[in-house]
Amino acid sequence: MANTSKRFPQGFLWGGATAANQLEGGFHEGNKGLNIADVLPGGKERLKILQSPGFDFEIHEDKYTYPNHEAIDFYHRYKEDIALFAEMGFKCYRMSIAWTRIFPNGDELEPNEEGLAFYDRVFDELHKHGIEPVVTISHYEMPVYLVKNYGGWRSREVVAFFEKYVKAIFSRYKDKVKYWLTFNEINSGLAMPIMGLGFSIYNEEDKYQGTFQAYHHQFIASSLAVKACHEMIPDAKIGCMILYAPTYSYDCNPENVMYALQEGRIFNNFCADVQVRGEYPTFIKRYFKEHNINLDIQPGDLELIKQYPVDFISFSYYMSRTEKKHKTAAEQGDGNIIGGIKNPFLKASEWGWEIDPIGLRITLNEFYDRYRKPLFIVENGLGAKDTVEADGSINDDYRIEYLREHIEQMREAIEDGVELMGYTPWGCIDLVSASTGEMSKRYGFIYVDKHDDGSGTLERKKKKSFYWYKEVIATNGEKL
């Protein structure tokens, strides 16, 4: 039986999370421009195709399918979906704005009114149901025009375009949005830079010099966003967003312990240190030296980063990572997208993502001990294949078990003294998988009749987890 003596704080932000490119559809409507997600082909090979030399960031319908183009048609069905979120009792809804709805190419002088008006309608609908928007400014949705003509975030010019975009949405939605996130899973660029940084790695120079120069530009852009938020919406809060995976040593061999420490600091802490502490961490200097990285840092850059750190830390948690300095191919983890080796103590999802609820408590403690800032879990969930029974029911007990075990660890972390703001499980409604372009990899409490081949009615159905999560929210996490 769940221990109900350990409670979640009053005002805890229960909700769900999505991203514009994975559920909106309407990819050419409202004068929207092309973003990276729009040229992503469907299927398990999508990232491999996208990162292949010669990929032209064009749409080739003769060769590929493009599930993000329609996705689940939230663009036209947002009222129906928000009503379902409200029925579950959502206190907040973490979503993103598609940059190319506001600036179709990214470098226009004026924003696109049709795009601005669309999000006005979405925010108004959320507030009608008493749901607070939590908005990611950039969620794997960089304009293709900036990728092709500027080289993505390697170009310092992109910083100014991003600042213009930020000020446009802050000005428009200052009375409607009080929680903002800058870059989704900013550190994921270390594993898949095409999504977050806007370029692929074909050589060592791009892997090191190009990647970290792009990060420097994003850090400047993040600080400019914090500055603009504090000046334009003084009562709002703005945070960073980190893909966090606690890194374990395979054993107690000091060589492996040190290797795990180094790998974990680069992946989990580098971006967070800069955005939260306002300075480059000391450990990165040796890394730069060993990889011959020499950043172009302009006068005033470091002062800006120091002056405008984020207000809170949001993060995604799906898996932990186990490391060993000298590993064989056979030891390599199959599905953990951030690398590492198989952990013999953990089971994994059908897609190979290792399931580690206690790792979430470890994450919360590591984050809070290091930064002493409020934390917000804005992604966590289980991708699985769901079956619609003959009577129309979807009995996803495996999803309930996964979420229950993680929420129990959140409660333990709060008892540990961690300041936790809220929890928005990923894919609260089924949507297109970012990593594989599949609909069959489902996360939601709400089933959408859409399939990998593009067929389906788009009908929404409540899963068993819908009613379970509704009760979790209604009891503020007491009844799991």
Automatic annotation (TrEMBL):
Q: Which GO terms describe its cellular component?
A: cytosol
Q: What processes does the entry annotate via GO biological process terms?
A: carbohydrate catabolic process
Active-site residues? 379
| InterPro entries according to UniProt | GH, GH_1_N_CS, Glyco_hydro_1, Glyco_hydro_1_AS
Keyword field: Glycosidase, Hydrolase
Gene Ontology molecular-function annotations: beta-glucosidase activity
In the UniProt record, does the keyword Hydrolase occur?
Answer: yes
**SUPFAM superfamilies attached here?**
(Trans)glycosidases
Family of the protein in this entry: Belongs to the glycosyl hydrolase 1 family.
The molecule here is called 6-phospho-beta-glucosidase
In its UniProt entry, the species of origin is given as Heyndrickxia shackletonii
